[in-house]
Design goal:
globular, 26% helix, alpha+beta
Amino acid sequence: MTAPPLTHLPESDFLLSPLTGWTRAHWEAIADRLLDGLLPYASPGLAQYRLPGRPSHSGPWSDGLEGFARSFLLAAFRIAGSNGRAGPALIERYAAGLAAGTDPHGDERWPPITDRAQPMVEAASVAIGLHESRPWLWDRLDDRVRERVADWLGGFVGADVNDSNWRLFQVITEEFLASVGAPYRRAEIDAGLARLDDWYRGGGWYTDGDGRKFDYYNAWALHLYPVLWARIAGPRADPGTVLRHRARLREFLAVHQHFFGTDGAPVHQGRSLTYRFATTAPLWAGALADATPLPPGRTRRLASGALKHFAERGVPDERGLLSLGWYRPFLPVTQRYSGPASPYWASKAFLGLLLPDDHPVWTACEETAPVDTDDVRLALPAPGWLLHSTAADGIVRLVNHGSDRLPPPPATSEDSPHYARLAYSTATAPETPEAATGPDNHLALLAPDGTPSPRGRIHPLGAEGRRAASWHRALVPGGTGEGHRVETVSVVHGPWEVRVHRLDAPPGTPVREGGWAVADDTVPPVGETGPALAVARRADGLTSALVGLYGWGDAEGTVVPAHGANAVGHHSATPVLQRPGGARLLVTLVLLSAGPDALRTDASARVAADGTVEIRFPDGTLERVPPSVRDVSASSPGPEPGGTS
């Protein structure tokens, strides 16, 4: 999908930025475009921005506050980053909004901060904006307005907060209150920071609350807010806590750099994806806090690449607005809490503007990211993920054996297509049909009426080297009992993934597996099928293939088309294999590639007498998967290409 030329942007500078051509001037231009685009939707007193679109479950009153608070983040970064030179009009605009929004008797007053209510989220953005723009805004506000702002933010003190990233909104807000001499509770700040420690799982990864809730909230919330808290707290912050947060961020960024494709696209996984380039916020936070292992030129290359990726695909739109969607408006990437102004959490991406224009992240020559030059394979044991990317096509693929976003047992909930799939990538998005379970990147047992089993709770079995594994209970709709155990081992090599499925299912139960869904806005993908083979190919060559290597017999492949079910494009297609009878062991080759090896599917699998599966990838590389993988680290790799079994 390509949008019209970005005529409002500065000329590209390929000497300073040889990969993207973008500079600080491009970031400032996009920021100004976003801020200007909001003005037609401002309330008379500038305290609310009532944008067009579906309201959130909190209602238009709260949504209007959200429009102010989230855009205020962007305005504050723009004001502070220019030392106030961004324009008096911008400063006056948000000063007026603060005065009108906190007037308890005014027509534009903000909803109060009450237990577990959406204004808690927005209060943190207001507090951050006030701190970062302090010399130009807070310090110049009328004393009565400052008192009203503190009173409104003070609704957080003693309030009941959701036990998730919301704990950090309380930390931020009350620390700002402490910084201006307003009432606050140090015990609540300390408790929120201690709760963050409870969720740390190692390797730079937090879960967003109890359970296995791994997604971009690790990036744009759980790592970001501790950096911003330390900036507000200054000498009040415990040095040991600050150092611990920075060490974790440094470790995370060594991994996070691998989540962006060569074209700048982030891996499409998790909730709140309408925040889009907010995925770059921790990159800037690392530079801001001196807590990054990345060279400054790479930090800018990754961040500018992501911003440019969306800008070239119509984000913001022709009105200068961020829609509820990914490229075009697309509600299935949103949640009940998403309102028309929710996408403006993308303002966090502009954190880099706080760094002076002579900082190395702005002056160093862009440096390549790992995906630009090398094939990368990276096991992430904490979330149960396996990343593999290929330089030939610049695609990053995430194999998921650990994040389901379900609360701890015994609680259950429906599958989400943004968590339950076996894999995600920078070039694709999951199918989001009205039914809970789409065919893409999913193995299902089928009920007599064809209804597929959900994946449900994912039980990780580890991630190490080139493999990751998990098991789940496939509950056939309409069936009885606790479901049937399905154990899956994924082994990756280059653009390929081989999945070894061991199923404890009744004889005769039909089984269906899908590959990647490829999508395009203009031309529907084309399909190719055969015995144990299904291929879907986009017009630009992006190819998704599924090959049954063992256990599928002569199952005929199909390509399942869809319309309006994919965030990447209106027309989508998924390669699918379906076996009518039962199977105890299935081995499948899964391919997503736009490179020269896109059509190479000449892999094989054989099963030894003891149940060990020997896999031969299309380039000859061998891997062995033992009969039962209780811990993937116990699996031994096979010989290199050219070796013997």
